[in-house]
Amino acid sequence: MPFRYGRWSGGPDPLAPPYDVAEALDAIGDEVLAGGTPTDALRRLMREGANGLRGLDDLRRQAQRRRRQLRKSGELDGTLEEVRRLLEQALEAERRELFADPSDDARLEEAELDTLPDETASAVRALADRQWRSAAAREAYEQITELLRSEVLDSQFAGMRDALRGADAEDMRRVKDMMSDLNDLLDKHARGEDTEQALSDFLDKHGDFFPEKPSTVDELIDQLARRAAAAQRMMAGLTPQQRAELSDLMSNALGGDLDLAAQLDRLNAQLQAARPDLDWNSDPRMSGRGELGMSDATAAIAELSDLEALERGFSQSYAGASLDDIDPEQVARALGRSAVDDLQALRRIERELTRQGWLTRRDGRLELSPRALRRLGATALKRVFADLASTGRGQHDVTGSGIAGEPTGASVPWEFGDTRPLDAARTVRNAVVRSGPSSKISLDVEDFEVVETERRTRAAVALLVDLSYSMALNGTWAPAKQTALALHSLVTTRFPQDSIEIIGFSQYARTLKPTDLAGLDFDPVQGTNLQHALMLARRHLTKHSGAEPVVMVVTDGEPTAHLERDGSAVFCWPPLPETLELTMAEVDRATRAGVTLNMFMLGDDPRLVEFCGELTRRNGGRLFTSDGSDLGAYVVRDYLRRRTGTPSGRRAS
């Protein structure tokens, strides 16, 4: 049996390698580290595109350009103007014929033509029973009826205009039979009956009217409703006078067949009931120098409706928005196959991020998985260490051996951030083995080994991060979030024997789980409840009473909220004396327990400076001032300094 080979066209290539989402993941990570949430980051990625693909914003702009072109394609009264031209043509031919006749009957008929109504529809109706003397006039008048009938039906069923040109009685009977069977089919579907076989029988009988060959009744309804809604919008775009005239003309065109008119009305009612979500009534606001007939105007407005729906989908600005809301068939009709390919590629990015375990959805919200969180934390930590290395800060702080204890006699490969002493002999030996005895010796990162030491101490770390609205207003939220991620990564990967708790506080304080960190956002509420945060930190330290306590507070404002006895929060600015007293009471409790509080102050407000100065004076901790750009370096350096054995309760120099 011969085989033919060609490009795969059945959807995603089943033999394609896993999609590389590294660039997309890095873009999401950058957005999160800049203070955003994973949901916002993915939405921005979808809007701007990735891996050389057009984003939703580009597709939306393309749809907007096409929509503007369509709206300038012509006026909607083309059919009405064509009827007027045919009517004038018929009357002119008839008058020429009458002028050649000297009889009184001819003069009487001329007078009747002169008294015809000015309104086109009324004039056409008045001439319905006329016995035309001119064959050319009779032919032009008959074209009016044929034009209106074909335009009305073609506005409902695409392609009927050509099929009905010169239609005889038998052709119109087939149209009526089709519409009757179609309405019966839609009735069955509306009642919830199984219509699979009924649709097949219908298409066997009337398939020439439906070249698109719908596979389901819902697909058939979509095709018909899209065009019916566009036809109704076309009527809404006319002036009241034009609308009345065209409606009258359409009624006259079908008036000789009441059954056909009734079937059309029945069909429109069923379609509108089945698809009430479509735009059936708004003015499309078409303009331009050309004139569009009913059929052409309906097609243009149907495309315009597609573009309007696509613009809403591409914007993703409504609640619960998803790429799955965008219909690829609409995209193909309006923007072409290349736009569909871009949309499918964007969907694939989102799908692969989830399938490969980087993103998860919980309660309808997008979150970074633990795997992605570890990668993000490592990225944040690298940035902090790069800042330390580039500025020279922290060199003294990160090179002690007090964190590890006595050497075990063995060595281990060096890893980024490892502070243990270098084993020079084994490092050089690794370089010789790698390079060969006859080669020039050069050290590589993989050659380095450090002295393995016993770990003798562990720490209980509490990082208190201000989540109040002022953090966003002052532009300090992003560095605070990056600092939390970096410190969490440092503690969990380099010092796994330590325990860390991130505590966020605004009007209330709360403990943040590791999976919450990436989606961490500032609270759009007023209040800086440091008292509550210190209470949670004290509970964490109590659980690890044998560990070295490390407590760091990141804030840009003095306390403005405290807890009442019933657990409710009270906010006031300027702060109430009670708020400051209760906060200092928590500071004193920590001091008596031997816990040092180091303050990282993001601002220079005099009241904040005064409060932080008083706090560190009473507690014995240290006060750091930062504009946010060096916050991560300060916090990590402070943790490493205190982790190397600085006794608690003593002011660090």
**What is the averaged pLDDT score?**
80
Radius of gyration: 39 Å
Strand order of the largest sheet: 7-6-5-8-11-12
- Helicity, in percent? 40-55%
Q: Report the structural category.
A: alpha/beta
% residues in beta strands: 5-15%
Low-confidence spans:
392-404, 645-653
Shape, per Cα inertia axes: elongated
Write up what this structure looks like:
By secondary structure, the chain is of the alpha/beta class. The protein is built from 25 helices and twelve strands. Helix 4 (about 80-100) packs antiparallel against helix 5 and helix 22 (about 530-545) packs parallel to helix 23 (about 575-590). The radius of gyration is 39 Å and the shape is elongated.
Outline the fold blueprint:
Blueprint: H1 22-33, H2 38-48, H3 56-71, H4 78-99, H5 104-114, H6 120-126, H7 135-156, H8 160-163, H9 169-190, H10 196-206, H11 217-236, H12 240-255, H13 258-274, H14 294-315, H15 328-335, H16 337-355, E1 359-362, E2 365-368, H17 370-391, E3 407-413, H18 424-435, E4 449-453, E5 459-466, H19 469-473, H20 477-494, E6 499-505, E7 509-512, H21 514-517, H22 530-543, E8 548-555, E9 561-563, E10 569-571, H23 577-592, E11 597-601, H24 606-619, E12 623-625, H25 631-643
Parallel strand pairs: 5-6, 5-8, 8-11, 11-12
Antiparallel strand pairs: 1-2, 3-4, 6-7, 9-10
Helix pairs in contact: 1-2, 3-14, 4-5, 4-7, 6-12, 7-12, 7-14, 9-10, 9-13, 11-13, 11-14, 14-15, 15-16, 17-20, 17-25, 20-25, 22-23
